[in-house]
Amino acid sequence: MTRPPRCSAPCRTRTAPNGRADRRRCRPGARRAARGQARTGQDAAVRPATRPRPTGPALRRGAGPATALQARLLRSERQWPGTGTGSHAIRLAGRLDHGRLREALTGVLSRHEALRTRIDDAPDGTGALLTVEDAPCLRLTRADLSDHSAAARRDAVRRHLTESAGTALSLEGGRTSWFRLLTLAPDEHVLVLASHLAVFDGWSSGVFLADLAAGYLHGPETLAPPELQFTDYADWQRRWLSASDGQAELAGRRVGLARTPMAPAAPGGFERGHLPVRLGRGPGSPLDAGLALGAAQGATPFMTLLAALAVVLARRDGRTDTVVGTPAAGRFATQLEGAVGQFTTVVPVRLDLSGKPSFAELLHRTREAVADALGHQRLPVDELCPGGTQPYSVLFALHNYPAVPFGLPGIEVSQLPGPPACHLQLYSPDPAATFACVGLVQRDGEIGGTAEFNQRAAAPEDVTALLTGVEDVLRRAVASPAAPGITH
User: Is residue 287 within 8 Å of 471, Cβ to Cβ?
Assistant: First the structure.
């Protein structure tokens, strides 16, 4: 496997009058953009998250605390290098200015501290630390495939996408991103980004692409730093969790989950598998009719599908309650929406199916359970369930986000599908305790996606049985929405 290139360009820093480091581009001759301006509105960003709240995030220098999730991913990366790498790719059709693209990429790295961060253990053994490099270091390799045949170009692109997804990045060394620019023809390119999940979540891809387009169009000096950086958030989270209100919320949620046993680890451990999945739509389909029923009861499509999945899991486990993990963005304040970082948290949703409820009643219970669970999404699952345990064996997500607009003059931009993401180690303190993670996307009238599952605990047909079971529950619910005993 090709190793990520080292950054050999000289990186210089100076201290700005306000004490912040003035970040200089590491590419000689590049435009220099001062990043020393103080960010405003930081106290307001955390105000809705704590009552009472600790002191708001402050402009910091030096090392700060990593999140519990980042500390776990650091340990995982040391044991299984490359498993924490995510990969994204876009096709660029049109005349591309390579110099402007390079400047824009460097500008995005300069804008976001998370993309210039090293994660390592604290010397005193108190936990993992985030250390932000003052100057960005762009790692970009190029491959000219224009003299290959069309078939050879396609094969080479697939190979690069696969290699990118398996790249072993270095959290301790700060090599958390690596770009590849593939030239297929003078007016056709593919840009591939490998990034570590410890510093880059799904939301970040949209932020990254929007910033890249702005930097390419208007120059990297126009990319002002976001109002809040991920490092500010990580510092706030650690202090909030150690304060009285954070401790009280954590204890309360642990009590609420104590009635549900922790999911057992599969005897054989963990071995990742992937499976494409979809739910059948169309006039008169159980899915469409079920979603319409849910909407009439005030439930979102996610809530309706979650309620049906809870019935399937309760039947499977012979229980009258079940816990499903669902990933949440974790960006509880608008000032966090423009920052790159790993904000994702998993929210355990406990669903009560006791008393033989009708599906209509279960929808109301699900609405309340989801609202309650999302109200606590500031709590990291690694803190909520200490000791590497988790109360859920199945993760479920339904995304309805549109494609990220990425407009460049004279260039047609489209996203390329890459290898399936490796989310189980991100979402699960103990991947061996996870049966499956079903991630669906609602777009253009279709609902489909990928199921990632533990091959030591499930076969592909066991995973598809979850979704056929959901459709069966919806079929029965539509026929008799008020009939009791939906779980039987």
Answer: yes
**pLDDT (0 to 100) of residue 98:** 96
Q: In this predicted model, what pLDDT tens digit does every residue of 41-94 receive, in sequence order?
A: 323 323 333 333 334 444 455 578 999 999 999 999 998 898 899 998 999 999
Residue 222's pLDDT is 94
Rounded CA-CA distance 451/134 in Å is: 39
Distance (Å, rounded) from C-alpha 56 to C-alpha 36? 19
Contact 70, 119 (CB under 8 A): yes
Max CA-CA distance within the chain? 73
Return the structure tokens found at 228: 């809040």
Strands 436-443, 394-399: pairing kind: parallel
pLDDT of the residue at 487? 65
**Residue 46 one-letter amino acid:** V
Measure the CA–CA gap between 428 and 392, rounded to whole angstroms: 9
Q: Give pLDDT, residue 65.
A: 92
Regions of the chain where pLDDT drops below 50: 8-59
Residue 272's nearest CA partner among 420, 478, 477, 60 is 420
CA–CA separation, 329 and 431 (whole Å):
20
Q: What does each C-alpha distance from 208 to 80, 107, 173, 404 come to in angstroms?
A: 27, 11, 22, 10
Please tell me the distance from the alpha carbon of residue 377 to that of residue 233, in angstroms, as a whole number.
14
Question: Cα separation of 381 and 240, whole Å?
Answer: 15
Query: Residue 401, Cα to own-chain centre: how many angstroms?
Result: 13
Specify whether the CB–CB gap between 17 and 196 falls below 8 A: no
CB distance 70 to 102 below 8 Å: no
In eight-state DSSP terms, residue 170 is B
Q: Are 182 and 156 in contact (CB under 8 A)?
A: yes
Peptide bond just before 17 cis, omega within 30 deg: no
Q: What is the pLDDT of residue 488?
A: 63
Length of the chain: 488
**CA 238 distance to own-chain centroid:** 20
The pTM (predicted TM-score) of the whole model is 0.83
Burial class (CB in 10 A: 0-12, 13-18, 19+), 61: exposed
**pLDDT (tens digit per residue) in 272-284:** 999 999 998 888 8
